[in-house]
Structures are given as structure tokens and as C-alpha cells.
Amino acid sequence: MLAKVGKTVTFIYVTIILLFILAPLFMILLVSFNPTNMFQFPPDTFSFQNYTQLFQDERILSSIGLSVFIGLVSTIIASFIGLFAAVGLVRGKLPGKNLLESLFLGPLIVPLVTTGIGFLLIFVPLGLAGSPTAIILAHSVVISPYIIRILIASMRQFDPVQEEAAIVHGASPLYAFATIVFPQLLPALLSGAILSFLVSLDEYTVTVFLTQAETVTLPIQIYQLVSVDINPVVTALASVMVILAFVLITILEKRLQIHKYL
Amino acid sequence: MAGSDISLKTSISLDSITKIYKGNTVIDHIDLDLQEGEFLSLLGPSGSGKTTILRMVAGLVTPDEGKVILRGEDISFTPPNKRNMGMVFQQYALFPHMTIQENVTYGLKARKLPKAEITERVQKYLELVDLKHLAGRRPRELSGGQQQRVSLARALAVEPVVLLFDEPLSNLDVRLKEQMLKEIRHLHRKLGFTAIYVTHDQNEALYLSDKIAVLNKGKIEQFSSPEEILKNPTSAFVADFFGYTNRIENVVLMDEQTAQIGDVKIPVGHLGIDAHPNDQGFLLLRLNAAQILDLQNQQTFMDEKEATAIRAEIRDSRYLGDETELRLHIRDGIEQEITVKLPQMLTPLPPEGMQIRFRFQAEAICFYKGDGRT
Amino acid sequence: MNRMQRFYTMLGWIAVLYMLLMFIYPVLKVVITSVWVNGQFTFDNYKTIFSTAIYRQVLVKTLWISIVSTFITLIIGYALANFIAKRPAKKQGFWLMIVIASMFMSLTVRLFGWMIVLGEKGPIIQLFRLLFGEKQELTLMFSSVAVIIGIVHFVLPFVVLNIYTTLKKIEPSLSEASIMLGASPMRTFWKVIFPLSLPGVYAGASLAFSLAASTFLVPTILGGPKDSLMSNLAYNSTITVGNMGLGSAISFVLLIIIVAVLMGLSALERRGHHASESR
Ligand SMILES: Nc1ncnc2c1ncn2[C@@H]1O[C@H](COP(=O)(O)OP(=O)(O)O)[C@@H](O)[C@H]1O
Ligand SMILES: [Mg+2]
Known about the structure:
The complex is a heterotrimer. Chain A has helices spanning 2-31, 49-54, 58-91, 97-109, 112-123, 132-157, 161-168, 173-202, 205-210, 218-228, 233-256. Chain A is mainly α. The radius of gyration of chain A is 22 Å and the shape is globular. Chain B folds into two domains: 10-231, P-loop containing nucleotide triphosphate hydrolases (Rossmann fold); 239-369, CATH 2.40.50.140. In chain B, 23% of the residues lie in helices and 35% in strands. Chain B is built from eight helices and 21 strands. Chain B has helices at residues 50-58, 100-110, 115-128, 144-157, 174-191, 202-208, 226-231, 236-241, and strands at 10-21, 24-35, 39-43, 65-70, 73-74, 85-88, 162-166, 195-199, 211-216, 219-224, 246-255, 258-261, 264-267, 270-271, 280-285, 290-296, 310-320, 323-330, 337-342, 355-360, 365-369. Chain B has a six-stranded mixed beta sheet, with helices on both faces. Chain C is mainly α. Chain C has a two-stranded antiparallel ribbon with strand order 1-2. In chain C, strand 1 and strand 2 form a beta hairpin. In chain C, helix 3 runs antiparallel to helix 9 (185-213), helix 4 packs antiparallel against helix 7 (144-169) and helix 9 (185-213) runs antiparallel to helix 12 (244-278). The termini of chain C are far apart. The site of magnesium ion has 2 residues of chain B, from helix 1. Chain A: InterPro entries: MetI-like, MetI-like_sf. Chain A: Belongs to the binding-protein-dependent transport system permease family.
């Protein structure tokens, strides 16, 4: 009897939490089929108009292009930094490793506005403010902790005796790294890179300090379209992003159990 | 030894090699010479420095003093990948992301050998270790024994100047161990490679080696052939390692062949270093040091026919496979205990308290000076 | 192995240098800008922050909104993490996926979703009108409530994962033993499971607070004019007003607050740990 009550209570609160997590996402999917008023619930019309217009909207397309470009380049930079940091921290001979680990994870702790203002302060004198270069460099720092954390965990699991086996049998350190260590870090690096890419695609706070008219990234564009010049096409865009993120995360979790590294 | 093409040339020498970790001298001025085609075992308890020596030969550890000389050339500072060695690790150290074939190919690719030669060699060595049928598998799909054979093939494939083994069998169960021992010996006979084999198991060392170096705390206690070591362990430490597990204290050496304790004379087969008549010392005895003369009941055990027979009381007895192990309390004024093993199953098992007589076997007894506890 | 280690050390240094140049240097530049006004060293910007009523209000608001959101998130997060950890192993994957997906789902998009849910023509207000009649007034958007909802939604997955991870590390045999010794499930939870899961709670709390206190986007999208937090204030000062020094100072105060709270939490955790050890 008591157990049954407990089960019912659990069921109710878990349902409420789940609803809380998913409600805004479902809402977006729902209203994306309503081209007239995206804030209307329940929707009063049904059509695919938002989706067809999505692929004709110049501003949105160029924002997507810019954000994907920035995301890719900054993820590549962050991947190198993450890889170097992880092998250096786990296996290198660096002084004050605890402090250095805080340095690498620091961008998660320091408020994004602080870093954002900092980037603005250093990029303005260089004439880089508002340029994709500035945003790319800034993103590479902000997203790197996600890669570093996964790679540190992965590198700690790696048995160094494999490197010795490689070297004794004729491999130079670089060759051993490229053929033995790197391939085994690759799954972790890829999942970290995908997560970082998603973070870069969604980065708003730091970017807003560096953006200018010609560098409107995707999240800034979305903000424009939901708050300033309201346009229902954004619902289709948001729906596509929701579904894409779900698919990517599902793959990552099924393949690599990424929750263990976060 | 191996093939007739192997001339007696020095392959590798260690010249006063020393390693110090944080002020601890882990390897203390060790000298060793190994001929081409010889199989050397480094034998010693855990922590005695075997692995460190092996790693200095491989170049994975740099000596703090002394030289590693390979075929007359000082290679002390040659990086490991330029030494042309092969190594078999205790934990196999296979590359988990590669197939068996790719593992064996690894050293050859690193050397950028021509494709044809790589293919030919990999086939040859996979066949030698009987793994050709598993070439496409990954290491984790193989049993421990199979993995260790892959590891062996990977090391053999580079046709190393010296093949190094670091306790390769200690992760395997007894039956597999036997099988692998045979295989390693067979391969050594067939291929004639030069090998250094690290182990803490004297039976492995005895079975495989042309030479054994017994290590204790970073120093070599004895360096000689298996026969010599078995027959004549030069120190108590070595004797202990080779089955001289019994100890009789407070003994005086009478002459080269006899020791005395109280009124009893005990024949001695071997003398430790620096042992001279009239020295005070102790005896180490193998498990076969006692030849049992009769097993009788206390009542009938009265007359003493043989002058050299010693009386003892059985304190414990048990079967070990088809052998019998007895713990004896030696009487006749010695009043010390030894354990002996008889090569047959005594039926019934002699009961505790039973009196027996036995005779010491000289060839299983060594005398050492001092108390052996330095 | 020295050469391999040297190789790794070299790579490590490259990463360290990059972070010094691209992360520490900008943050230092913020600190310098905040105390260096017109070629002079001065704490004027900090004095302005603490002596101006509006700024003080924002500071206080940031603190209480962060603290309230942190507590709500911890409670919801613990309940969910505990539920997930007790699921059969196979079903945990599904729940974790939902948690992680919402973690890496675009926050801009999620907050947009909340705009609709909480909006004037959204489901909650529609339902409210249906129940209480058209005349009843209820506004959710552009309020502190909306901001707190947004922050909780933003921070929840981080907290759930942290607590879940520590819950998974607790030996199941511990609670079995406790129940076998006659303790009720309730007592078992409070005496055995909960104390052992505290590291996860502290880690979750730290993360929740620092994310909440520094959020910029949530008040921007869901908050009204009165719901500006420190980050928004810093942005307005630097970009809208163009006072770099003041903006830097505000953002640096925020950083100091977060670091102080994190250190306080870790001290609290250590004290709790010692107390339970000596018991
Ligand atoms: N990298 C190292 N740093 C410090 N001490 C070490 C290191 N490697 C080995 N030692 C020490 O050297 C001694 C010999 O070790 P090792 O050669 O591994 O012995 P064995 O292989 O005979 O067990 C041990 O006391 C060990 O603790
Ligand atoms: Mg060893």
C-alpha cells in the first residue's frame, strides 16, 4: 500500500520534471507549423510555410553559414588546445598541475561577460573587433574546457606501456603518438569536439561583445527574430536545431556514454 | 647451443651500470656479458631491479652511471627506437585498436621496410607462433595466452639484436605457462636469438636459460649456468631461491665435507664463498636433503644400526600431488625443524608424533659462513 | 620514456601559452581597465558600484535570484538524479540522453520556447483564464519568476549529472545492508545515501550558482527592465554607455562574488566532511 503511494508520488514528480524539461522544446515544434502568430497557443493555422521560408531567408542563411564556419574553425583550434592540454597535464612534466587544470577549466568559472569584455579590450586595439577572427579566437577559449575534460579522462585511462611497446619496436615519439595514442583518443576527441561545436553554435554572451552588423551569428539572429523584429520563420529554424541536437546527443550517448565525462 | 652459425661473440655488455631513484641506488654497478644467441635470465624477488636493468638495455631508462655496449658499440645514449630491440611485456601491451596482423606489422612499418618484406615477415612470424588464423582479430578477442604469443610475434618480427622479456608469463595460469615456456624454448632453439628474460620464478629461469643472473637489491649475487647455480649456490640468498628452503642454525664446519652441530656430523655438498674449516655458520637444505631409512612405531624403534642415521619426530605430514611432505623435528641434540619431500605417496600418511630415522644427503646441503642476516 | 614525456611537456606548454594569451591576458586586461581610469590608478569604478543605489539593487537581485534558483535546481535535480540512478541500467541511458540533450540544446532556443510557454497567449495563462475567468490578471513573462524558471531550466542538467555521478558511485550493498539491519528506506536514504551523495550536491551547487549568477541571456530574453542582473549591467555599461572601466569593474565584482561563493561552498563541504569523520 505504502509502496504503491510512493510509486505514484514518484511517477507524478518525475512526469512534472520531464514536462518542465521538454515543454519549451515541444512548444517550439508545435508553433513552428503556425505561420501567423508564433506566440499563439493552441496554434490557429497549420502549414509548412515557416519551413519553406526558412531556406529563402537571406539573413538566416548567412547567419547559419557564419556560425557554422566560426563553430568549425574554433572547434578545430579548441581540439588542438584540448589535446595538447590533456597530454601535457596527464603525462607531461608541467609545474603546478592542479593550478594548470584550473587554468584550462577556468573559462567555465569566469563569467562570460568578464571574458567577453576582456576579448573586446584586447581585440579593439588590434582592429579585430567585429571580425570573424575575433569571434573564432574567443570561442576557441570558451569551448575548450568541454574538450579538455573529456580528453583528460580518456588520457588517464590510456596505458603508457603501449607507448613503450611502440618505441622499443622502432617508433619515434611522434610516430608513436600518431599511430598509438592519437587513434585511441580520437573517439573522446570527436565527442568533445561535437559538444564544443554545439556550444559555439549557441554562444551568445561573449559573442555579443564582439559582433557587428556584418557578423551576426545564429543565436544573435534568433534573438533578433524573437524579440526585436519578430518573424515566425525563426520557429522552423529553432525546431531544426532542437531535432539536430537531439540526434547528435543520442548518437554520442549511445556510442560513447558521454555522460561519464561531463 | 643454438645454430652453428652463431660464433661466440659478445652481444651485449653492461659495464658498471647504475641507476639511482631519489637517492636510492636501485641498480648498483652491475656488470654483465651476454654472448650472441645466449638466453640470459635475470632472476630475483620483486623490487630487486630486474625491470630497471631490462629497461636500461631497451633504452627506456637512462643509466646514471656506466655503459650499455652492444656489439662493441656504446649505445648508452642511443634512443630506444634506434636500438633494434624487441620486447615482450608482462601486460602484453598490445595495441587494442589494431588487428593482430597490424600489431605484428607495427615495428616493420615504423622501420619503413619494403611492403613485400613486411608481408613476408609478418606471415612467417604469425605462423611461427601459430596465430595465422587469428590475424584479423583484435587483441581483446583473444585469450591471455594468445595475446602473449602476439606480443612475442611482434617482438620477433623486427628481428631484434636482443629480445627482451619482462615476466611475460606471470599473468598466465599454470597450464598455459608450461605451454608458453615450451614454445619460447623451442623458438629460441630454432631461431637462435639473443634474449634477456626477467622473472621471479626460478623454474622458468632454469628451464629456459643458458645463463642466470640472480639479483638482490640491485646487485648480482651470482651469475652462472643453471647447473652451476643449482649445484653450488654461492650465497644463502641464491640457495634460498633455488629450493634450499630449510635452515639449520649454529653449525661449525669441520672440513670441506662435514659440518657439526652438537655431537652430530652432517655431510655437506657445497660451501658458500669464503667458507673455511672451523667457521661458524648455518646449513641450507633442499627438500630432498633427507633420505628416510625407516618409518616405525615408537615401541619397535630402538636399536641403532647405522652410525649416520638421525632420529626425528614427525610434526606434520601431507600429500602434495603424488609426493609426500613431512615436517620433521630433528632429535639427537639438534632440536630444529626441517621440511622434506618424498617422491612417493606414503600410504597410510604417517601420523603426527611418529618417530623415524633418516640420513642427510650431502648434495642437497650447503654450508654458509656467518648467520646470513646482513 | 623521457623523450615521450618531453614531447608531451612541449605540447602542454603550447596549450598553457595559448590559454595565458587568450584567457588570462583578457581577464587581466579587464582588471586593469577597471582600476586604470584616464591614466590613473583609482578605485572609483568600484566606489560607484557600491555607492549607487541602482547598482546595489542589481547586485542584491543577482544574489537572491542565483540563490533561489540554486536551491530550486538542487531539489528538482536531486529528485531526478535519484530517480535515474535507481532505474534499471538499461533505462538510465534514455534519461541521461534527455538530460544531456537539454544541456547542449541551444539555450537561445530553449528560452524562446519559454517565451511562448509563459507568454500572454501561452498555455499556462490560457489555462489560468479558463479556470479563473477572463478578468483575472496573471503575467509571467518579463518578470523575476520567468528569469528564475529560465535559470533553473538552464542549470538543471548540470546539477542532475553531478549528483547522478556521485549517486552511482555509492555501493548498492550499503543501502541493502542498512535495510537488512532494519532501517526503513526513508532512514536509509537520510542516514546513508544522502550524506554519501553530498560531494555531488556541493559540486552541483557550485556549478548552479556560478552559472546562475553570471547568466546574461536569461534575463535578456525572459526578464523585464527591472530584472537586469550583473551581467546585463556590465554589458550596458560597456556597450550601450561605452564606459569600459565601469563595465570591467562590474564584471570583475561578479567574478569575485562567484569565486568567493565557490570557496565558501568548498570550505563548507570540508567542514561537513570533518564533522562526519569525527562522529
Ligand atoms: N620510476 C621509478 N621511480 C622511482 N623508483 C623506481 C622507479 N622504477 C623503479 N623504481 C624502484 O626501483 C626498484 C626496482 O624496481 P624494478 O626494477 O621494477 O624491480 P623488479 O622488476 O625486480 O620488481 C624498486 O624499489 C622500485 O620501487
Ligand atoms: Mg618488474
